[in-house]
Amino acid sequence: MRTENGKLATAAFACASRQFDVLISLRFTLRAAFGSLSRFARLSFQFSVFSPLILLLLITFPHLQAASINEANSLTITQPFSGIESLRVFAKGSSQPLFGTFRPPVFVPAIPFVRGQIYEVELKLANGSESKFEVTFDQAAHVVPTVRLSPTSIAIPANTLKLYLDFSKPMEEGVFLKHITLQRQNTGEEVAGAFRETELWSPDGKRLTIMFHPGRQKTGVNLNLDEGPVLIAGEGYDLVVSGQWRSTAGIALGRESAFHLKPIAADHEQPDPARWQIHPPKAGTLAPIVVITNELFDPQIFARALQVPQTPGKAEAKVIDLQRVEWRFTPEQPWKPGEHRITIDPELEDLAGNNLRKPFEVDLTVAPPQPRSNVLKVQIQP
Amino acid sequence: MTSESRLPYDLGTAMKTMFLAALAVTTLAAAPVAVSPSLIESPQTGGLEFKTLSSISFGPNGLLLVAEPGTASVVAIQTGDVGPDVKVLEKPVADIGSVIAGGLGAKKEDITIKDLAANPASGRIYLAVQRRPDNAVLIVTVDAAGKVAPFDTANLPWARITLPGGTASKVTNITDVAFDGTRVFATGTCNEEFASRIFTIPVPIKHGSTANVFSAETYHVAHRKWETKAPIQSFIPYSDKGETFVIGAFACTPVAKFKVDDLQSGAQVKGVSMVELGSGNRPLDLFSYTDKSGKDWLVVHTQRFKQNAFGPSKMWGARISMDYLDTPQTNENAARRDEKQHEGPQGIEIVDSLFGAVQADKLDNTRAIILKDTEGTLSLEVAALP
Asked: Which of A81, A126, A89 is nearest to A108 (CA)?
């Protein structure tokens, strides 16, 4: 952090310091050269040289490091004011002082100072005088956030429950419904009431779970009957993200993003790993096991949901076309020949909320659904 | 969906337990459990900082429960704010949004009031606030004179309890927290899963412990045919005739109940819809109270997200007779409010004092505390309950 005149003060100090050195050297030279001058002449010369520097320091000194805000979220009064009776700090332009505590010379706000914000400090001194000055907490580096939709496919089931927005930076919360809309592609009309209003962020603040309103997506629920589902198979939609959405550093996305969706038929089936393709590597290699699904999943969730027990390695997943996700597991040690197993989290949900144990909507009038196997066997051969 | 208020507010999680201290006496058929003045075991002191906040609510004796989704935990704080007198807000605090925003060093439009809780032991009001864009959070208090101050936890005993997640996921959202006299309930979700988990925390609340998973899934049934998982939006524990229920608002149906007495840990919980307020409404807060005649009511504070509002604001509330708890007409046959009338069917009525409220909590059996939005300006007020 620095004061408003900090740069100038620093520069002035440096400049003055160099000038002092120069002048001291010059003084000795001149002393030798002008040793014969009268005392009065010598004093006059020195005054005329040094007084501008002294004047510069007197002008800037009151503003030099009067206070500073450090990374530990405290404002310290660094100038030696005598007898501070009280201190108030305001965000510039506000008439309400910050909540916080002042134990001279340190003020700690109730919540952290905001980068880039100018603060006005008011001091009341024991002698009845007041001092006011400004302090700025330096802006962070200007990094523009980006956003993408996951999964990256337009062909989502019409009864999709969840999609995900992945941001490159943590984003401000509490305003997601102001910044996302679902629009019909043919008319541009907004689909009202499309989303569940509960805000669901990942702990790192970079992933937002967007949930289509479940009351509309569920069969037979009153909202579904009164309002209809959010998505109709075969129709085109745009999920629009406004460019005004800011990162936690206060930097906006800058431009609007529109993600096209063209829903396909509703999916009421449990995921079926038996229908997934498995591409085993050769024994003795570090080549990955590859699994390709026959339906869409969110890749981040899918990557975590499949594991190769007791085999250190790295798993990753990506959407490879409109309807398939590819999962790859690369071991840290070469594969041994024989049977290997991939376990699947039975709670893994597809986009419509069906998991391996049962479909999202269970028909109670028919026999209960059978859970799918959550183990894939892989034969690795030389 | 659009918002009428220029001042953003949290729309999803507030639930109040003002009534619960009295309910604790009637909750169980067995002798009521005496609530110790110290409800926290192995309390910590100092060093409490919140990075995230969702719900706040009060238990007895000034016990404040705070849901902290970022750490998947509930924090219990013995506030010591216990009177001896209950001092109610003397007059409305106009434009409280500006006062709070200034105190946090933010613009008014960059503040969200995530939840409101009125301490029945003192009348003091607590607000959970979030600032944008950095998402910093703070709890502030408002006294009877309307003075706003940060909630200082420096010397208060507290305990943190974690909420366990699933096999490959963890709790990332806590939708509600409430005390029923003998235990703390909390509802949470993992982003990867659709249903809510219900957790219980026994009293005394022990720091560092992990909550019990009371139920891993909550369900709703439509037309006796389609059973689906259903996240709980907000809830209150409630006792009636010696039985304990949770009355809740599910994401897809407004007012539902389920019995907790007979449930074992890990069991499925199926919500039964009792009343439909009509499509296009989203419940925000629930609380119960007893009117002067001794009749019990459930108050549902609601937001309407369709255009045809039937009052001066899309933020509104209704009271529902607790007689509906016993109704045989449930789910698709549940009673539907007559949207063209102030009252109807019998036992379902609009509460006029809740129009415009973006947050609400019960203070006592005659009053609620509301945060009212008038064209983007928030005021904190006392609202009369009918």
From this structure: A89
Mutate to test the interface with B, among A134, A222, A364 (most CBs of B within 10 A): A222
Q: How many other C-beta atoms are found inside a 10 Å radius of the C-beta of residue B210? A: 13
> Which of the pair, B331 or A136, is modelled with greater confidence?
A136
The span from the CA of B163 to the CA of B212, in Å, is: 8
Other CB atoms within 10 A of residue B246 CB? 25
Q: What range does the domain containing A83 cover?
A: 67-136
Question: A257 and A154, same structural domain?
Answer: yes
Q: Is residue A266 part of a domain?
A: no
Between chains, do B132 and A174 touch, taking CB under 8 Å as contact? yes
Q: How many domains does chain A have?
A: 4
Q: Which two tokens stand for residue B369?
A: 């505390």
What are the pLDDT digits (tens) for B68-101?
A: 998 899 999 999 999 889 999 999 999 999 999 9
How many residues appear in chain A? Answer: 382
Chain A contacts of B173, Cβ < 8 Å? Answer: 198-200
Among A89, A117, A136, give the residue marking a domain's end. A136
- Distance (Å) of CA A298 to CA A209, B271, B298: 11, 29, 40
Find the angle CA(B205)-CA(B211)-CA(B213) to the nearest 5 degrees.
145
What is the strand order of the sheet A338-344 is part of? A306-307, A338-344, A375-380
Q: Rounded distance, CA A221 to CA A214, Å?
A: 9
Contact between residue B322 and residue B288 where contact means Cβ atoms under 8 Å apart: yes
Residue type at B132 in one-letter notation: R
Specify the CATH number of the domain B20-33+44-384. 2.120.10
Q: Which residues of B touch A362 (CB under 8 A)?
A: 226-228
This complex has an ipTM of: 0.81
**Contact across the interface for A353 and B229, Cβ inside 8 Å:** yes
pTM score, two decimals? 0.83
Give yes or no for residue A225 having a pLDDT over 90.
no
Q: Based on the fold, state whether residues A231 and A176 are members of the same structural domain.
A: yes
Average per-residue pLDDT for chain A: 85
Amino acid at A364: L
The token duo for B310 is 């039937």
